[in-house]
Amino acid sequence: MKLKFTKMHGAGNDFIVIDAISQQLDFTPAQWQRLADRRFGIGADQILVVEKAQGAGCDFRYRIFNNDGGEVEQCGNGARAFVKFVTDKGLTEQSSIRVETMKGVITPRLEADGSITVDMGAPVLAPAGVPFDASGLGGWAEGRDTLWPLPIKYQGGKTVFVSVVSMGNPHAVQVVDDVELAPVADTGPLIEAHARFPNKVNAGFMQVLDRHHIKLRVYERGAGETLACGTGACAAVVAGIRRGLLDSPVRVTARGGELSIAWAGDGEPVMLSGPAVTVFEGEIELTSGR
């Protein structure tokens, strides 16, 4: 079969976007993985699938597959690509839409200047809701946040101290002195697969530049380090504000570009703003079972 697709990115976090309203899709994890492979497929951090809404009051359903073939709950940069895609393709004439995800409804909005803002909902801060197994750990307060010690097998055994936040998907955020020197490639996979996170976790490395500006790198669960991570930016800013290090709004500089995050505090939604860019469109021949 031939599959039509659009290649997009948000601050360098790149996606294959597929219209599953007009095309029939029934792929295995191996086929998703093949599509995302940068040598044998199209290449992407994630594959975004646009479907008809299943519930009342929503405009679309949004599914996300990492480049390892696994389906995940949320992707903030992808949500911005999603709204640009459905707008450009004429699937909606609305500037603000309601979109079903695995973890609830999000409301991305196309702004007059072409940027896209996404209401990502309120962060989940209770460890059990992330989910994070805090049993037997001696966390301590920093501001309104709790830092948790996380032993990892690095350089003979090292403990990193993380804030845990869910933005619809789990994040472990640590503060580093220099994000460019942080051992993301070495410790990211160890944090991602740590036994304390039953569903694995996205590992964030945050450098605070001033109270309204951070640098951030994220080792994404199931994808490796990406050039930007929207939910990771949200989680880092939430952690930084709760720790007393940041004030809203916060500019987040990632390796692929910049995002803007605004958050009014506990119980309030996190607002994510940034670009979404269409790179090219194409068609790929898919072989059954591959």
From TrEMBL:
Location relative to the cell: Cytoplasm
GO molecular function: diaminopimelate epimerase activity
Pfam families: DAP_epimerase (PF01678)
Annotated residues for binding of substrate: N13, Q46, N66, G76, N77, N169, N202, E220, R221, G230, T231
Active site: C75, C229
Domain of life from the UniProt record: Bacteria
Enzyme Commission no: 5.1.1.7
Entry keyword set: Amino-acid biosynthesis, Cytoplasm, Isomerase, Lysine biosynthesis
Pathway: Amino-acid biosynthesis; L-lysine biosynthesis via DAP pathway; DL-2,6-diaminopimelate from LL-2,6-diaminopimelate: step 1/1
Site (Could be important to modulate the pK values of the two catalytic cysteine residues): residue numbering on this chain: H171, E220
Reactions the enzyme catalyzes: (2S,6S)-2,6-diaminopimelate = meso-2,6-diaminopimelate
Major location category of this protein: cytoplasm
Function: Catalyzes the stereoinversion of LL-2,6-diaminopimelate (L,L-DAP) to meso-diaminopimelate (meso-DAP), a precursor of L-lysine and an essential component of the bacterial peptidoglycan.
Assembly notes: Homodimer.
Family: Belongs to the diaminopimelate epimerase family.
Protein name per the record: Diaminopimelate epimerase
Organism: Massilia rubra
Gene: dapF
